[in-house]
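user: can you give me the structure for this one chain? tokens are fine.
assistant: on it. calling the predictor now.
[tool input]
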Amino acid sequence: MKPKIWAIVPAAGSGTRFGSDLPKQYHSLAGEEVILRTLRLLSVVTRVSGITVGVAAHDPVWAGLLPRLPERVSSFEGGQTRSETVLNGLSKLIRQGREADWVLVHDSVRPCVRVQDINRLIDETGFCSPGGLLATPVSDTLKAVSPGHQVTGSVPRESLWRAQTPQLFPVGLLHEGLTKACAENFDCTDDAQALERLGLKPSVISGSSLNLKITRDSDLALAQAILDMQEELPCSE
């Protein structure tokens, strides 16, 4: 029997780069909060058995969303960093006896990921440890730049990919990697990095450049345009 998949959505950050007192996951997109659109999308993936969201300890907004959450969504208290929040979620799963299952970690502010890409990630990873992540090849020319903003050289892009979420890993293995990273005060910018630090090599699964991470206020308009386009195209679950 295949292991179950549980989704963790870290959403305890304040979103300082967004330029607003309201965290970016709670801004409106197509008539509802960004995080609600993300959670509704994840809830469509039938192979995900449950979704748990890491929220800040004194989050003033989350409680008001509870009546509108999809089924199978719960929450837990997040940490000071993204790594700590995901680790708290993994600890919750382990306490529930799910250490042998798999975890799908997805950013709360990536509401444009396609369901078919999530399913392809699951299929192509095939529950083979250490797991995998969605990513896209880098297409821009990359420059190394000095502190004085002068070009010091060009960086070959042939082997470079942009990491996205979701990322899919064994619960116990990711818990081990993030525990080690946090003990060493190393804040992983994504979860695959925690496994890399264990000497492991997660697989890269080709995603879509439309899987936008909302980081700045201007990204909301772009996300709206992507959602409008996706609604006009046939989709697959």
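assistant: here you go. The chain has seven helices and eleven strands. The domain at 5-136+163-232 is CATH 3.90.550.10 (Spore Coat Polysaccharide Biosynthesis Protein SpsA; Chain A).
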